[in-house]
Specification:
It is built from six helices and eight strands. The chain has 244 residues and is of the alpha/beta class. The mean pLDDT is 93. It is an enzyme of class 2 (transferase).
Length: 244
Amino acid sequence: MSKNRKDSPLPDVRWPRYGVDAPAFPALLGAAGAACCLAAGRWRPGRKALATAGTALIAQTGIYLHTTLRGKLRVWRQELDRAALKGDEQLLDLGCGRGAVLIEAARRLPTGHAVGVDLWSGKDQSGNRPEVTLANAAAAGVSDRVDVHTADMTALPFADGSFDVVTSALAIHNIPSPEDRYRAVDEALRVLRPGGRLIVADFWPMARQYADHIGQGTLRGLGPEYWYGGPWLGVTLLHAVKER
């Protein structure tokens, strides 16, 4: 585990920029859509089918980009408002990336603190680097209440009961094996104090598995603003409270 300090050189960021989730996916989706449309203009056989497929793929790309650039931010603002934080909590964000949830939470913690952990994979989020997250926090005016660490979600470098809230936005599913995904959820519960809250957004099958694994929690779909191309890649919120 390493901590990325705020006194290291930071990029010049005038306002927070959170990048694109899994950037290769919309790039391929859009390219496939464009290829279908071009092919439809050249080949008479199957023209209608190609044009329909191309239009659908381009529409899915647009929905995906809306979600990753705007929709998910609006959803998390609403969910953090719904959480009714008191303002003095210690909050941990798993797979914080460039800080979309971390920073939005920190805005609500004037006397609290928000900590993010990540392994900083550019495959999972474009431009995913700790210095970018810290620069985003500075641009949002919350750098005094944000820290980030390079750490694995399956082996968190924090003591039991260190946090009042643990959040995670579409990060745990990136862990390859089911066993390690469950270990990450167990780690999240371990570092929560009794009565603390776990708030995890992930694709529906994963969120349901996490709830089944811990044997509790409520599940709620987050709607079209959190569709990665369509309802088949919609996101569900798991909310659970650690037993006292």
